Amino acid sequence: MSQPIPEQPILEVRELRKHFANRRGLLGALSRDADSVIPAIDGVSFDLHENETLGLVGESGCGKTTTGKAILKLHDVTGGTIRYRGADITKQTQAQFRPLRRDIQMIFQDLDAALNPKVRIEDILREAILVREPDADKETVQRRVYELMDLVNLKKNKLANFPAELSGGEKRRIGIARVLAVRPKLIVADEPTSALDVSIQAQVINLMRDLQTQFGLSYLFISHDLQLVELMSHRVAVMYLGQIVEMGPAKEIAKTPRHPYTSILWSSIVEKRSKEIAEQGSAPAWGVFDFERPKGGCRFAPRCPVYAERGRPAICTDAVNPPTLKAAGEGRVVACHFPL
Amino acid sequence: MSEMTNPPLLRIEDLRTYFYSRVKRAFVRSVDGVDLEVLRGETLGIVGESGSGKSVTMLSAMGLVTTTPGVITGKVTFYGGETPQNLLEGLDAHVNVERRDGRIMQASKDNQAWQKQADQNLRDIRGGKISMIFQNPRAALNPFETVGKQIAESVRLHTGIKGAAEAKEKALYWLEQVRIDSPGMRYNNHPYGLSGGMSQRAMIAMALAAEPQMLIADEPTTGLDATIQARIVDLLDDLKARLGMTMVLISHDIGVISRLSDRIAVMYGGRVMETGPADDVLDEHADGHPYTRALLSSTPRPENVTASGHLPAIEGEVLDTINVPPGCRFKARCQRMNDAVRARCDSREPDMFEIAPGRRIRCWLYSPQ
Amino acid sequence: MKFTYRQDVDTVSEYSSFSAWKSARRGDRLSVIYGLVVVCVVLVSYVLGALKWLPHDPEAMDLDAMMAAPFTGSYLLGTDFMGRDMLTRLILGIQAYFLPGLLAVIISLGLGSLLGVLAGYRGGRAEGGVAYFSNLIDSLPRMVLMLLVIAAFRPDIYTIMLVFGITTAPTIAMLVKSKVLMLKERNFIESAVALGLSPAVIIFKHILWYNCRALLLIQATIGMAEAVLLETSLSYLGFGVQEPTPSWGNMVQAGANYLMQGNFWPSTAPAFAIMLTVLGFHLLGDGLNNIFEWKQSR
Does one domain contain both A65 and A191? Predict the structure, then answer.
């Protein structure tokens, strides 16, 4: 795995916030309610260094995809700052930001995302190449197309096909090739392997690693597959309901989680559980839940087993004193009043 | 559980389900000669990737495949009634196939007549003796009716209970069995008021309320969040133990399969590649089909990463069931092929070789010669 | 009823053998062929008429062969009630509607697409403004509007077609807008933005060209058909081209006087011409739309 360069954060995110207006029906619109906002991301801060892979995990609704899209300015940011190589890009307009888009790219969760179904593969790639080199002549472009196909291990005869004629793995590779055509430094990978068969997932993972070593890429690796994130990332950030609750080196987070949510997440890996249960004899039981919107304080409290065990301490629901990310040794931070 | 002690509840023989691509003018051989057995009281896990035919196999057995041509050969014997019954009875009357070099190249089928026949065959069995749950619970639940009413309906249709009050009681009972929170309140909820995990539980309740002899679960945990997946798997494990259900679990997730299955069947490219007790099939160090072994060592798990930082990936693409090569379906990607078997792998598809009682592998490496 | 499926080849080619034309239904292909024939005939006739390469003098009256049936002597389509060659007059009649119709189509498509894209991509007030404008125009009955404009300003056919084009633009604007809205949310638009493509390229290339061209083509054929009907209707009513210059509309009108006498040809021949031409344009658009809007499921 490539070695991250700690002194040069390529991306600095501070207190990022993205609120979505809650579209309410006719009657709802008549009442002016302060609750009509969904805070998809609510104060997210992290650094990403060159050559590093930062894994972003969490369940649906935690805001990880929104974070990725916000970094690409596909969403307007409600608050906070994003700095790319020191330059503040938060307030830039789309027109100002466009030249920088070559440096920051995204692999979308949906395999068909990058592929206009009516366009052939070779034209899709040519368009991407021309974004980077608008003055290139036909031969150069054709050469670059072949180079890209080689980079992602695809046969050249796929160039004449339409996206609908490709398999899932092939579509994913084309998506990666298209992103590489503009030669980015930072790639946000949103669930890059989720829609793929297991035997293809390994191929794509190997490819992404090789590309990282070859081109010195940095990845923001968003995934719900915890074991995959563990093996791909240098560091991992765990998100819950729009906030990062724990962050640190991947192996440490997996082995000794400090936040109760992280612990529950990692213990829900189905294979591991079969051995645990065989040893313990019964499944760990925790309270039934729903995604409640707590009024204040720690967002995880309604689901937190530690909160229940400690007799529901008031500090956990204290809105004035919510848990913030604090150092917990060896490059780790946890946002919890009672870390494990 | 060995095959010797448990009698089969369902036996699938030589099942073939083909689709037709008008554009390519060729058959999509989705299920290409599948033999499977489900024993009483066990959980059979069918694992495979896309195109393996795992879902289509069970859907075909239940007569739920309506796209033409659909099921063209096969016999599905259900032993749950008083006498064994062939669920695909009458198929031959409506289908003509022509082969060339042993491979089917033409099929004529009267699909309308066959559908009618199949519906007749399966009328009492579908939903009643054999229940199915699917990947997307919202697709199975009627969005216009409350959850409780739908479960009660299932009770009234498939069990002897006819009275409304008794049916409601039973429905509440099943909602409790699936460990849904506040069953009384959920009874009156509509499906859109339930989260993903809860809808899944409701669907399981509805399937179980019919008190079936067998439950077919087609990708029941795919698409759910990690923690919810874990809890659904726990629930199914629990139900297995308490109700002694026979279950067929279809999934591409090896973790889920390993947790819940007693026996496992691995499918690839429309055929079964190996069957056997779960522990044996999943044991990386024991004998097994090259596909399964390669699959297990290539799953993205930290343990599988080699010294060079790579995962030992299976090269090539998953078999496209339009172009089925002669010989073994897996030959293009097989790492364990050696000179002794290469000639056979290239030309003839291996049979299932029984290397131990109940343990069968479709690979020339394990043939007795 | 048994359906038979057959596979002839042992191995299926991986290459893209997909051809929209070959997978199309027979009805669609016939529609397109017929439509193309009509378009060709119209084009050729327009050129012939413009260059005045006609079989006969349109105004030469052959008093011996009045209202002759087709294939009488050198009159391939017979003569009208004044002994003038029908074929020549029909060919010339195309002059009356061809260029004006083209103008109408270009205006309606151009203006319509622009407004539609503006409303769809920008949304907000632009969308509101376009919707207001569209509703305003749509609420006016077109034929009545045309007649009012003619009565008030006595304009030439080109101006009429200009107004016609403007009045049909809102329909196209709405169609394009809804397409744009649908596509805007699709992932490949989002990823085109992420790639760094400028909005202009996204709109014109990805949205309009790749995804709206079928829609615009159909609207063009419908528009042309409508233009033909409009021009011929106006000439029929006496507002368009005047005698002796032929227009299919005024030919029908003039020939109608002779229907009572049992001479149906002078009136019916141009009427058939109108019908076959309009049908041709509609079928062309319909057939092309069905062929090119191929579904992804194979």
Answer: yes
